[in-house]
Write a structure and sequence with these properties.
Chain lengths: 227, 66
């Protein structure tokens, strides 16, 4: 009975596989087009995406199977440490301190554009009194997340690059789906919170998706070994 | 596209992991190629063909739907 099940399962598997390999080819042809769209969307958000898109475009011309524009593998661990610290600090700041700022981080520094919420006074290209709580946590988070997301895997190769690309595409789509939802159902200060979180959702979604896909492909190997 | 990688591997009597090491790719790559979920690059296909001593056409075959 067990053997019978396995056979059926295999048949189904080859069928799915056939469909998916065809789909993959189709998807693959569209990649460069998507990359361009990506780049357009994200220039506003951050330079990271631009760099990554350049990496994607360049990657197709590589003479070997290695990937360019990725950080060395050892950055992964450092990245995770920084990321965890910044997330703890961020949640502490947002929910425990209720967004109020740490007094010792009040400084006077150069700003490009700074406007006070309460008064209508604004500073353009000049010195202003600012608080660096959010600045430090945000920058820490970006450093950590970028290291985690774009450090090479130990066995980085073209297959993992493919997972990387697809995860990035997926993350961007889902991010904008979530954003549309939030545009519709969040208003006022609620929407301000959405904007704060949305600065980081693309990279968070990417990290989650990418690691999940890697985990799944490893799981598949274990399944193969057992059979 | 279908491939006979699993068969070739059986003939040589090596595991996915050993093959992955020889070709210097991840184990996941070899596994996904065998399952037909991943179409390897020309370079990877040529490396596999060199290792098995068979032409790429013998290992990878187009299907009517391709």
């Amino acid at each position: 009975m067990g053997a019978g099940c396995r056979k059926n399962h295999d048949k189904q598997l080859t069928h799915i596989v056939r469909v998916s390999s065809r789909n993959y080819l189709l998807v693959n042809q569209h990649y460069t087009c998507h990359d361009v769209i990506y780049t357009r969307h994200n220039v506003i958000n951050s330079c990271i995406y631009v760099n990554y898109a350049i990496h994607l475009l360049n990657n197709f011309n590589l003479p070997n199977m290695e990937t360019r524009f990725l950080l060395p593998n050892k950055f992964k661990l450092i990245g995770w440490i920084i990321l965890v610290i910044s997330v703890i600090l961020g949640l502490f700041h947002l929910f425990y301190l209720k967004g109020s700022e740490l007094k010792f981080l009040d400084v006077k520094m150069f700003t490009v554009y700074s406007q006070n919420f309460l008064s209508s006074s604004s500073v353009i290209f000049g010195l202003d009194k600012v608080n660096l709580t959010g600045t430090i946590i945000g920058i820490l988070f970006i450093f950590g997340a970028v290291m985690v997301a774009f450090a090479k895997e130990k066995n980085e190769d073209e297959f993992i690059t493919k997972i990387r690309l697809e995860s990035f595409l997926w993350a961007t789509y889902i991010n904008y789906v979530i954003l549309i939802f939030c545009f519709l159902f969040f208003y006022g200060t609620g929407f301000m919170y959405v904007m704060i979180f949305n600065m980081f959702t693309v990279i968070i979604l990417f990290i989650v998706r990418f690691n999940f896909m890697l985990y799944r492909s490893t799981k598949q190997i274990q399944y193969e070994k057992q059979s | 596209m279908k491939n006979s990688l699993k068969v070739e591997r059986a003939i040589k009597d090596i595991t996915q992991e050993e093959l992955a090491k020889i070709i210097s790719v991840s184990r996941q790559a070899i596994n996904s190629i065998e399952l037909g979920k991943y179409v390897p690059s020309t370079i990877l296909a040529l490396k596999l063909s060199r290792y098995f001593g068979k032409s790429v056409n013998e290992i990878f075959k187009l299907e009517e739907t391709d």
